[in-house]
Specification:
Bound molecules: ligand FO1
Number of strands: 6
CATH architecture of the largest domain: Orthogonal Bundle
Strand order of the largest sheet: 1-6-5-2-3-4
Number of domains: 3
CATH superfamily of the largest domain: DNA Cyclobutane Dipyrimidine Photolyase, subunit A, domain 3
Distance between the termini: 57 Å
Radius of gyration: 22 Å
Structural class: alpha/beta
Length: 449
Amino acid sequence: MLVNEERIFLCKPGRETPGPVLYWMSREQRVRDNWGLLYARILAGTTRPLVVGFCLVQGFLGATLRHYDFMLRGLAQVAEGLGALGIPFVLRLGEPGQEIPRLASELGAGVVVTDFDPLRVKQVWQEQVIQGLSVPLIEVDGHNVVPARRVSDKQEYGARTIRPKIHRLASEFLEEYPELTPPAVPGPEVGLPDWEAVRRALDVDATVGPVDLAAGEDAAHAALAAFVGGRLARYAEDRNDPTKDGTSRLSAYFHFGQLAPQRAALVAAGPGEGSLAFLEESVVRRELAENFCLHNPRYDSLEGAPDWALKTLDAHRGDPRPYLYTPEQFELAATHSRLWNAAQTQLRLSGYMHGYMRMFWAKKILEWSATPEEAHATVVRLNDRYQLDGRDPNGYVGALWSVAGLHDRPWKQRPVYGSIRYMNENGCRRKFKVDAYIATWERAALEAG
Ligand code: FO1
């Protein structure tokens, strides 16, 4: 079987009809290395057309123009790439619960394929689409090396417990992708979407503007090549230094599905410690986040944290807070800490914050907020509003790791933190040139006005 059956999950059983195959693209917004698209192509065989549909929703979990701009630039390349293979790409604006069943019936689709995504909003969409469909809906996990539904049937305690399961299964799933061949039967002539009209129709918050990061599959593959060719070797030691461009900078491409994490793993795999560190981050840590969001319905609230963490945060609720800021003051980078303000400025202006700084940035929000609940809400809101890769399982887990010890362990007791791991500026100073980082982003803040 060209697509491992463990990646396939039958959401809505039923009898296929001989009509076209519709691949409802959502998470995996790419032509290459896309298991859902490959599976839909296999179902089309030699007798049925294959059509790709994408439903563009307004206001996806508070996404801003920054996110839609990056996504639409990538989707335009998807439409071109599919067109070159003779596969029509249909864009619909509205709610998937209405638009996908409507498109399926317009096409007389015989079966619908879609992407695995553990986020609640996607499960709701799938439920609504299932109500409106009379043919089967099949979900394919195109995001994980080891399919999330396969690696574990419960919430894993941490990297320590999921790592051996992933390593044991990696040899079965870390495989090369089969070739996507043009369909044997041509689909309906639909032409390319009018992207300018789509942008005009979008009603999104434009106060958080686009970033100048190149978007789309080609840019993602170039970024991967640059990382593997240049920085991978030193990744193990450089990844924690925000003044060095040591990280992969691939997270936005993973988030919008413009690059398959499995492709990155295939290209970066090797004996060096940089490769091992990168595979730990891009496979073990990322798939641990998928596992958490799939099995914990409260993945985006403080209640999703481990009991020991909630207890310790509770016990220290009344501790004096020498510094206290409102969510607005955090958003405006208006704290007493020049380092923290620099991190918030980098986030606001560039849509990216280095992984190490993200942890420091979030932990200080815990320390300087009135309650742990408010702190967690501020971390999630600012992350999803400004990070290009916001609204992602990785981000929800990162917020709970920083604020409430998810996938971490108890540390030495401290005021406010209790036994949640503590971080401070001195820790940053031991890791990298903090003054250079501050100077960079204070200058950027002045230039941005
Ligand atoms: N997925 C869609 O199927 N349609 C959308 O219009 C859409 C908008 C969107 C905006 C910002 C963002 O961060 C994600 C967005 N997604 C959309 C979902 C994305 O494709 C990913 O599936 C999830 O965010 C990651 O789990």
